Amino acid sequence: MPDCADNLPRTDRRPAVMRQNRRAFLQALGTMVVASSCGPSIRAAYSGELGRECPNGAHPVFGAAVRSDALRNDAPYRQAVTKFCQVVVPEGELKWATVQPKRGQFSFSDADSIVQFARSNGLNVRGHTLAWYAALPPWTAAIGSRAEAEAELVGHIRQTVTRYAGVIPSWDVVNEPIPDRPTSVRDLRESLWTKQIGPDYIPLAFKTAHACDPSARLFINDYDIEYEDARSRAKRDAFLALLRRLKDDNVPVHGVGVQAHLAGSRAIDRARLGDFLRAVHGLGLDIMITELDVIDNQFPGDEALRDKLVAEKTQELLDCVFDIVQPTGIVTWGLSDKYTWVPIYYKRQDGLPNRPLPLDRDMQVKPMYSVVSEFITRCGA
Ligand code: GLA
Q1: Predicted local confidence at residue 51, as pLDDT
Q2: Fewest beta carbons less than 10 Å away: which of 176, 229, 253, 280?
Q3: Hey, what long-range contacts does 322-327 have (CB within 8 A, 24 or more apart)?
């Protein structure tokens, strides 16, 4: 059973500095911001570029996935993160391969350094991710039964969520549960978890995370649900069907992450994405843009033109989303083009560096930033 109290030692295993200042940290965070209807800014004295406060304090938060090594070694990057972000997400530091590289040996030092950086600068943190088919350490290949898989999944989530209970108030619990080409609305992406546990791995992950931090907002996150093509339609249908099943079964899922790794070359389906978001909202779930970037490998090389197209694609998505619902936040998958996953899979044939993010390699704002900024400073009803 996903009950946290059972197995965890009663001692607080958070780093000392985190324990000592936790009250002050939580006070600095103020009312939880990644919340259903957007609370006030996490930074009372917030005066960044997105600093216009709504009269009712109801604008979404902006943030980015960040890298602990870059935060350590790159001062201009560090300054940009504190200047522009209200929330940060460890890009890889809370994935299984980093957290539990050997069975039973947990390593939180990289994640802790991001949490510590965030707290020192009055930023919020989102956790990513607890149950995913990828970034699994090699030892997990030896998991050979349902009972073993359940024990490992529950144990990992308990260790991780409990460590940051009250400090990381929002988690991507299940990442990318829907296959790229679902053949039915019950189809789930194949993984260690579906192979050993079946569809029950999803409720198990959510219930465990909820038991370990009942105040955390728990998200399910996926990609390629934005487009007009048949693949995207099938993903939306399967995703919505899954969400309905989870809600029917009273699974503690609170929000849906629209990753929004936007392919420059694929048209966004404004009408059908809108229908999907309306239905998700109707289920009482928050909506958050969780991994926004624009994959620019097929855009022309000219930088100014490319930046304009990236900004337009961003606008196209945000127009659609904000027409239906105000998301609780917009998180880009990286802040600066200097640190982006995009060239790993989408290198440009002309050899020019990709420019998928709001800031350039020198931490200067690009047109994409202006678009995001305009939506972030919109006041919700
Ligand atoms: C997915 C994952 C992220 C990250 C990105 C880009 O969207 O959720 O953790 O790995 O891909 O690589």
Answers
A1: 34
A2: 229
A3: 322/375, 322/378, 323/274, 324/274, 324/277, 324/278, 324/281, 325/277, 325/278, 325/281, 325/287, 326/38, 326/58, 326/60, 326/378, 326/380, 326/381, 327/60, 327/258, 327/286, 327/287, 327/288, 327/289
Domain limits for position 188: 5-378
Residue from 129, 173, 341 whose mutation best tests the ligand 1 pocket (most atoms within 8 A of CB): 341
CA of 172 to the centre of ligand 1 (A): 11
Q: Does the Cβ of 172 fall within 6 Å of ligand 1? A: no
Q: What are phi and psi of 62, to 5 degrees?
A: -115, 145
**Alpha carbon distances (Å) from 130 to 39, 204, 364:** 25, 11, 33
Pocket of ligand 1 contains residue 290 by CB under 6 Å: no
Closest C-alpha residue for ligand 1 atom 4? 91
Residue 14 has pLDDT above 80, yes or no: no
Distance CA 150, CA 143 (A): 10
| In the predicted structure, residue 271 carries a pLDDT above the cut 80 | yes
Q: From ligand 1's centre to the CA of 75, what distance in Å?
A: 25
| Residue 356 near residue 310, CB atoms below 8 Å | yes
For the chain, first and last CA: distance in Å?
40
Radius of gyration (C-alpha) of the chain in whole angstroms: 20
* Separation in Å, CA 38 to CA 63, 280, 289: 14, 17, 14
Residue 267 belongs to domain with CATH number = 3.20.20.80
* Residue 128 CA to its chain's centroid (Å): 6
Contact, 26 vs 49, CB < 8 A? no
In residues, how long is the chain? 381
If one counts the domains in the chain, the total is 1
Q: What is the pLDDT of residue 378?
A: 81
Of all atoms in ligand 1, which is nearest to the CA of residue 291? 7
What confidence score (pLDDT) does residue 34 get?
Answer: 29
Q: Please tell me the distance between residue 333's alpha carbon and the centre of ligand 1 in angstroms.
A: 8
pLDDT at 31: 28
Would you say the CB of residue 223 lies under 6 angstroms from ligand 1? Answer: yes
